[in-house]
Amino acid sequence: MRKIISIDVGGTFIKYGLVDEAGNVLCKNKMETIQKTAEGFVNELCEIANLYKEHKDILGIAISMPGFINNIEGIPLVCSVLRFIEGYKLQEELSLRTNLKVRIENDANCVALAEKFSGNAKECEDFICITIGTGIGGGIYLNNKLIRGKQFKGGEFCYMITKDKAGYQKLNENSSMTALIKMYKEYKKISDTEKVLGSDIFKEAEKDENIKAIINEWYGNIARMIYNVSSMLNPEKILIGGGVSAREELISELQNALNEIPWWKHVSCTIEKCKHENDAGLIGAAYNFINP
């Protein structure tokens, strides 16, 4: 069976490996995202491709990365964690240097594609993926088709606006892991520069009711996002991905928060975790390559 070199680019790490046409991750590894220029970044991707040059059955290179991605020309239009790559003809340049076909897609869209390919949405024609990490990402699959939007900005739930006492907030500012960490730091009066892991917050909440209340507020923010998305798009399922999806209690806590919304019963849908977790970017990028 032929293989795809699949690369999942993040602001902190680049995950990479080989994925076959059936969606099986055959091998994988990761490295830090350290380059600060487009030239250096492309060189880094070429080095990854060279790791697999001995394989004779490589179809090409598939890339998942954050931001607004012109998936037709393979150009990152906006990429807040890798500003130097914005507007760069990445697909064209990487193809020229490696002599391989290259396809690029938004990371949250790749999560949705992975779930459709061989995950918890395999039998669904209408579903939504919401990824919760440094920011909020979204993939919309309606009428058995990924919705990218006219300007490749479909599913960018992070820009949805909510309102609090201080004024307007984007969902990124109250529903992401970054937001939870900020809420925790404000409560503990910890410096913005001090490193705090989300897992540490959940662990401390087991003994501190005030921190548990902060987490419950955060769950409520996510629940309102789910409610809004479900009321607008009426999907069969909403799948939750990102690092936090590894937590066993995630879905039950979100269900509790959703049930507190009086109108949830009128617009409800099934809430589940994404199946593929950390491999979703690799699998979804490969699926996008196989099924452009």
Throw out a few tags for this protein.
292 residues; alpha/beta; Nucleotidyltransferase, domain 5; 2 domains; five-stranded mixed beta sheet; 10 helices; globular; ROK; EC 2.7.1.85; NagC/XylR family transcriptional regulators; ATPase_NBD
How are the SSEs ordered, and which strands pair?
Blueprint (H helix, E strand, L loop, with lengths): L2 E7 L3 E8 L4 E8 L5 H13 L7 E8 L2 E3 L4 E4 L11 H9 L2 E6 H12 L8 E6 L3 E7 L2 E2 L14 E4 L2 E4 L1 H4 L1 H12 L9 H8 L3 H25 L3 E5 L8 H10 L4 H4 L2 E4 L6 H11 L2
Parallel strand pairs: 1-4, 4-7, 8-13, 13-14
Antiparallel strand pairs: 1-2, 2-3, 5-6, 8-9, 9-10, 11-12
Summarize the structure.
The chain has helices spanning 38-50, 90-98, 107-118, 172-175, 177-188, 198-205, 209-233, 250-259, 264-267, 280-290; strands spanning 3-9, 13-20, 25-32, 58-65, 68-70, 75-78, 101-106, 127-132, 136-142, 145-146, 161-164, 167-170, 237-241, 270-273.
Describe this structure in words.
By secondary structure, the chain is an alpha/beta fold. The protein folds into 2 domains: 3-112 and 279-290, Nucleotidyltransferase, domain 5, CATH 3.30.420; 121-273, 2-Layer Sandwich (Nucleotidyltransferase, domain 5). 37% of the residues lie in helices and 26% in strands. It is built from 10 helices and 14 strands. The strands form 4 sheets. It has a 5-stranded mixed sheet, sandwiched between helices. Helix 1 packs across helix 2 (90-98), helix 3 crosses helix 10 (280-290) and helix 5 packs antiparallel against helix 7.
